[in-house]
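Treating backbone geometry as a discrete language has practical consequences that deserve illustration. No coordinates are needed to read the tokens, only the vocabulary itself. For completeness, the protein is quoted in full, as a sequence line and a line of structure tokens:
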Amino acid sequence: MYKQMENTMHFQLIEPDKSLHDFVYCFSSLQNFSNQHNAVIIPNGKVDLIFQAHENQLRVALLGLETKPKYTNQEVTNFYSVSFNPLAIEYIFDQSIAEIINTGKILASNFWNFSLEDLNNFEEFCSKITKKIYSLLPSKIDERKRKLFQSIFKSNGEISISDLSEKVFWSQRQINRYFNQQFGLSLKAYCKILRFQASLPHIKNGELYPQLNFTDQSHFIKEIKQFSGVSPKELYKNKNDRFLQFLSYEEQ
């Protein structure tokens, strides 16, 4: 998908091969992004690996999960990102990200042997990093965890921990411990983020009332405000394309 804004901002999104879907959500590119956008980054339940041109150098950062809106006024000339599903943190990055929830950390400028020149062509970047991710995939993973995330994503977070526990044969206590230790939040908190994300296509289409399992309109508005900082009506307007993740939804 490719989108060019009137102010010359360019956005591209490429989906990964199906064999990577458990680990990678998408690859994206944002170019010529001005600090005049007053952009808002809203929680999406993904972990982003960012490659950015900064003062003629490559800056690489790993961002933790977000539980609240984040405001930015950065000037971005060239910005590539890999959005990972949480399962990738253990099996590709081999670490916990609990300590960087709502923040991130700078990685080595040559992380995974990337350089500033790799930001010259988005498709070539995607091809190179896809090969790197394949090289890091383990031969085996805990199938309980794979099934856990598949069930959460399929339900848009609208599944109880007791139902998940029965599906994956993993105790509720162990599941919550896994989420808190690995990602820095509870399963319930993570599922709320997924339900919020699942609401965005509806809001973009002007459906400013609950389409998912919210208690009522008041609950819906409260939760949208919690994660976006604004009401569903303001989110729908998306003035100046401030809410960048809306760019990933094609115009209807």
